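The following record pairs a protein chain with its ligand, flavin-adenine dinucleotide.
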Amino acid sequence: MTITPFRSCDVAVIGCGPVGALAANLLGRQGLSVVVLDKAPDHYPLPRAVHLDHEMMRLFQSAGVIDRVLPDMVATDGHLHVGADHGVIRYMGTIGRPRPFGWSNDYFFYQPELEAHLRAAFAASGNISLATGADCFHLESDADGVAVHYRHADGDAGVRARWVIAADGARSDVRRQLGIALDDLGFEEPWLVVDAEVDGPVNFPPLTGVPAGADLQRLSVMMCDPCRPATVVPGRRRHRRWEFMLLPGEDDAVMMHPAQVSALLDPWLQGVPHRIVRAATYRFHGLIARQWQHGRVFLAGDAAHQTPPFFGQGMCHGMRDVANLAWKLAGVVHGGADEAILSTYQVEREPHVRGVIGAAIAAGRYICELDPARAAARDAAIRGEAAARAGETAADLIPAIGDGIVMAGSAGSGERFIQPVLQDGRLLDDLVGQGWRLFVGSQTSHPAILASALPDDGAVSAWLAARDAEAVLVRPDHYVFGTGRPADLLAARDAMIGRKRELAA
Ligand SMILES: Cc1cc2nc3c(=O)[nH]c(=O)nc-3n(C[C@H](O)[C@H](O)[C@H](O)COP(=O)(O)OP(=O)(O)OC[C@H]3O[C@@H](n4cnc5c(N)ncnc54)[C@H](O)[C@@H]3O)c2cc1C
């Protein structure tokens, strides 16, 4: 066995799934040196996630990878839930809805392609190195950093990092090594996931109550049918996803058998040429790690939490995690921020994740109802809430940040800040850049962006006016720090991040 000398870096990222790969790109873009370690020889070849929302698109912009990923993204029209009687019970449609964040609310994509694009961007960064076939088996922390020991084909090696992001997936070795327990939110249902390449539109049974203009071929359709709850999702290009709930007593191996899979797909694909790419069973559950930070080690992505995929948010949660960490780590390395800000990671992220996983579990409980009488009662109850739910989109599920580095109590604090499309077709972030941004309604002595001077058809001015705010300070991850007087906002921000040197506003 050979022992190669330790390399040093600012951040070691363990696991190069979508979450670790985005973490590396965000950190590398901000000038941090990053070593990414993954035990597999290449990215996972099959899709798991198929949906992401506008916030991920904005993060891809921040990470400088948007041009790589955009051609493989398909904007979609939202989600439709269909009841036991095949009538619509809930519609989270996005057709004709405003797009305040610059992107469509929802996109479908092919996970292996996205992961390949994120990895391909490492070389362009110059700050990121990736070691594949590197199985991390031991972490040793001291006051200044962490030694990450890994095993690879040439023997054992190591990396020394100031911090570690463990994005090593649902079965996280790091989480186990650190003895961090998972909080089980009490939802566990077995589902069969089938991916296929399909040449033509999918057949749907006759459905009633489909909103005018809604195209079933462009929606994620949840059939809440007690005979067999199922989801039908349009992927990018010819890719289609089905998810079928396993009924009590059904055996995983039997259900994955090609003849059984064909029988399940038959009503949807009769007469439609197709090729089944894979079929696998999963347990959909809700789990959240009790501790997300252990000294200099941070859990992120599936290592920190897992959700039933009913709103397609599992990977999105992980991407929000690393966006939250990336600006704070960069602030400590380059911005003179106090390292104590890193302890706001779990404070900010956990309530967010709990809120959305709670909504997915609540939907899962009604989707997975197998009793016909209770399913009929459910349908009536959800239809009864139609007026209150009118106009809802899946994007509305994401809560504001309530605690952490936000000026709680000021209007709009903790919300995601808008990203208007500018008159020349660019997006706001492309014009004003990343990092902390102070938008003001009228001139100030502080370095700031004058809202009235933006070619955004008055969108930022209108945002300020709607909150009766003189100024808004936006964090590098695009969440609103707070609104108020510019001097007060900057002073509050500096006090919270324990700034030691000047940070650009
Ligand atoms: C059926 C299904 C549908 C889903 N649909 C959606 C959806 O539509 N939208 C959405 O947002 N999410 C969805 N998800 C969730 C999403 O797939 C996951 O949240 C996401 O893949 C997790 O990414 P990750 O990077 O945290 O972990 P992973 O993708 O699991 O990556 C972990 C990486 O860590 C590596 N690793 C593990 N151990 C070690 C070690 N010891 N040393 C080095 N490397 C290691 C692994 O090789 C792997 O590459 C879905 C999940 C399923 C199962």
